[in-house]
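Query form — protein Phytanoyl-CoA dioxygenase domain-containing protein 1

QUESTION: What is the three-dimensional structure of this chain?
INPUT:
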Amino acid sequence: MVQQSECLSCLIHFHQDGFLVLEHFFTPEECDSMREQIQGIVAEMEVPPHCRTEFSTKEGEQLQAQGSSDYFLTSGDKIRFFFEKGVLDERGNFLIPKERSVSKIGHALHAHDPVFKQITHSPKVQELGRKLGLESPVVVQSMYIFKVCPQPAPLAAVTPHQDATFLHTEPLGRVMGFWIALEDATQENGCLWFIPGSHTNGITRRMVRAASGASTCVEFVGSEPTYDDSQFIPVPISKGGLILIHGEVVHKSELNSSQFSRHVFTFHIMEAKDTSWSKDNWLQPTPELPFPPLYT
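ANSWER: The structure tokens for Phytanoyl-CoA dioxygenase domain-containing protein 1 are given below.
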């Protein structure tokens, strides 16, 4: 558990840098339970070929794939599968074994799967939320990210971005990511990189729902700045470690050029007190799944 003195130091670093590394936050057994659970979910995966979507963080490819697909847009209250680039043929058939084709699973594991629900609402996560001063946090989405190698090509990098581009609130500063390493995350297999302090500069780009009749379901408003690569620092973390990510901090991950995977479970929370969730966000709460409170 996080001690009081440690918490004060953590808060200082988090507010200065926009991210915080907490090594060994989860046990190896908890990490293994999540990996075992996801293996069962993938083994039972059934996605019609016309719904199979390649996941990308590049703007043009996002609009072409996720942005043109109701399968993505309506995934906020479901468990759905998104695939790596180059693993599907033109008819949506798998070119490699399906268990090695998945890029991520989202966006409601925290609500529909008992293992991931327990992790998300675990006493130590709730305690950390209270130490961070969160009064009424709610869980808005969750994802399991694979980053498995080898593939037909090294797995794509995640381009520099801010989570608030996709998960926008009024006021800003109310969204936070919990990023859990289920294996060691290294520079070789694609750990996160951050620009410390970049969460203080606001955002310049948003992904919003497109108007009715548009050619895509979502569109980008504004543009992402060109970032200086020398400003990024790598943040490797051991299995079981947790990285807290401020919604406006700029971060990325590089190619997985190793022979090792980099499995991660991540979820985002929002401080709901005195906060408005943008009705333009691609992700919306539904009658079937309102954003559940973090504290149980």
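ADDITIONAL NOTE: The chain is about 20% helix and 25% strand.
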